[in-house]
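User: Could you go from structure to sequence for me? I need the amino acid at each position, not a summary. Structure tokens:
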């Protein structure tokens, strides 16, 4: 016997149930006068709501709205404006000069930006091959940091979970100090053997 919840009865009244579910509700209604009464209330409210809210769908759309849709001109997107600019009928030397200057400025800006914002690189591979890393991942609870790589870096396990192969894995954060920079990165390590953790 199915449970006749209000949601199921409303869906039945609105004709939203598939044939099998509708048949189950019909059979359950035969022996449940209380549910029959609720169905009657839902049917009446459905009729009242249809009368109140269905009328605007049958009214004629005002002409100013129709004109607004028919005469709408979408503004050109930036991409379209740039494409139109490239379709210059006759190329002048000034155009070539402008493109050359833009190209030189762009390359120069990229070169300097890449050079100045590049942090000092620290190799993390030694951190993960260190026995302290596996021991820390094995013994440290999430949210507590441990030191690796002769205390030049700290690792903080963030979360622990099972992967699709049933292995225990941990998300971690590595914070390293080097050349006056503080570098932070995240990774995932999974337990591969008795206390061994691999990234």
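Assistant: Here is the amino acid at each position, in order:
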């Amino acid at each position: 016997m199915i449970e006749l919840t209000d949601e199921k009865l409303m869906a039945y009244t609105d004709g939203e149930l598939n044939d099998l579910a509708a048949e189950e509700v019909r059979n359950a209604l035969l022996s449940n006068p209380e549910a029959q009464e609720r169905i009657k209330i839902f049917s009446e409210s459905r009729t009242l709501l249809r009368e109140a809210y269905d009328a605007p769908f049958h009214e004629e759309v005002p002409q100013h709205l129709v004109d607004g849709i028919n005469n709408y001109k979408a503004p050109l997107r930036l991409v379209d404006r740039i494409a139109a600019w490239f379709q210059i009928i006759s190329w002048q030397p000034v155009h070539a000069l402008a493109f050359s200057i833009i190209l030189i400025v762009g390359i120069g800006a990229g070169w300097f930006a890449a050079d100045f914002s590049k942090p000092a690189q620290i190799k993390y591979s030694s951190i993960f091959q260190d026995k302290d890393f596996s021991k820390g991942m094995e013994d440290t609870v999430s949210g507590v940091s441990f030191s690796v790589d002769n205390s030049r870096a700290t690792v903080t396990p963030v979360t622990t979970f099972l992967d699709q192969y049933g292995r225990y894995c941990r998300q971690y954060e590595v914070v390293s100090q080097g050349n006056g920079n503080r570098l932070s990165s995240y990774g995932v390590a999974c337990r591969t053997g008795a206390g061994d953790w691999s990234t």
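One structural detail worth keeping in mind: The helical segments are 6-13, 19-30, 33-53, 63-70, 78-86, 93-117, 125-129, 131-139.
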